[in-house]
Amino acid sequence: MKDLRPIGGRRRWIFVLPLAGLAWLTSGCGVIGGKIASTSDPAGDQARLIWDLFMVPVWWLTVAVFILVTGWLLVNIVRFRRKPGDTRIPPQVHGHPRLEIAWTLIPAVILALIAIPSTRLIFQLNRDPGADTNALRVQVIGHQWWWEFRYPEYGIVTAGDLHLVVDRPVVLTITSQDVIHSFWPPRLAGKVDAVPGRENTMVFTPEEAGVFYGQCAELCGAQHAHMQFRVVVQTQQEFDAWVQKHRQPAPDPAPGTLAATGKELFEGPAGCAGCHSVNPTYDPSTPINKTLMVGPNLAYFAERQTLAAFLPNTVENLHQWIANSEQVKPYSIMAEKWWKIRAQQNQLLTDEQVNAIVEYLRSQQ
Ligand code: CUA
């Protein structure tokens, strides 16, 4: 005979523990890398419209459904609870066409109600990228595992940090050089896939100045979680100054300094220059699908928020990344095609050499 005792005692933990664990895990989701990544605190028009749609009608409809369903459930649990000594079997019902039609129709109607504003918003968000003549235009290129940003209007290229202007619309042309990625700055806008051979667009207006967290939102390999970026939203004046700086060639360290030694290593025996450029400018007629360099452009590296597409840009982290690429970001090109090969050939950089390169990159500001 089936065991009809209510679940209690130790067995209750089978249900409670995983739920508690899930709650604990997801409670960390809002804050990543010290920056709030929550969609519930929008700082761009697109993120705000999506959030508003979620709150009205989706949120209040689900609240109503939740109260109705659990309320009815609780009423029945209390009213029809088996009393001590009652061994009767309740009436066995099979099939109830009216009830079944009702619980099929009601959810269908609710979904249809949600679909109307959702569909309208989808069209609204996919507004014509040509409509904003004042818009800033940026090309976004996904790589395993970092983001490249090209500004064809200014002929400058950067990586990791996307610089935008507050209250100025931006048209992003998004593609990928290898596998499918997804570009997602949660507080500013929704997600758009970065697909090799395709150019998708995203149009939005940042409404708040500051630094915003971004994340690749499509599983793209071993380091997908470490394919982050930052959006630096500035005033027009600050942005213009940033552009002006990036049109100047990379600063040259003073002769005889540690940074100068680092530059020699970077360009020569350490082999960094084989994949990385420190030149901030490029030929703006370059097609979006043409690779400029294998690795991220490192022009004015010291001003970046992050390195290796996830770590805070500090001296310690930079040192670790160069000295121990394999441990910091396994399977990355830097780990596989540079660190491991040098390790095999017994040519890993000495601590002194790493210090010099760190000093050189820190001088790029
Ligand atoms: Cu790129 Cu996940």
**Quick one: biggest sheet?**
5 strands, mixed
Query: What is the H level of CATH, i.e. the homologous superfamily of the largest domain?
Result: Cupredoxins -  blue copper proteins
What overall geometry do the principal axes of the alpha carbons give? elongated
Helix-strand category: alpha+beta
Question: What is the tally of helical segments?
Answer: 9
Mean pLDDT: 90
β-sheet strand percentage: 15-25%
Return the CATH topology of the largest domain. Immunoglobulin-like
Secondary structure tally: strands: 14
Total domain modules: 2
By oligomeric state, this entry counts as single chain
Radius of gyration: 27 Å
Report how far apart the termini are. 76 Å
Strand line-up across the major sheet: 5-4-3-7-10
Quick tags:
Immunoglobulin-like, about 375 residues, 5-stranded mixed β-sheet, elongated, alpha+beta, single chain, 14 strands
Secondary-structure map with pairings?
Elements: H1 12-26, E1 31-32, E2 35-36, H2 45-79, H3 97-125, E3 136-143, E4 146-151, E5 156-159, E6 161-165, E7 170-176, E8 181-184, E9 192-194, E10 200-204, E11 210-216, E12 228-234, H4 236-246, H5 258-267, E13 306-307, E14 311-312, H6 315-323, H7 325-328, H8 333-344, H9 351-362
Parallel strand pairs: 3-7, 6-12
Antiparallel strand pairs: 1-2, 3-4, 4-5, 7-10, 8-9, 8-11, 11-12, 13-14
Helix pairs in contact: 2-3, 5-9, 6-9
The structure holds dinuclear copper ion.
The site of dinuclear copper ion has 9 residues, from loops.
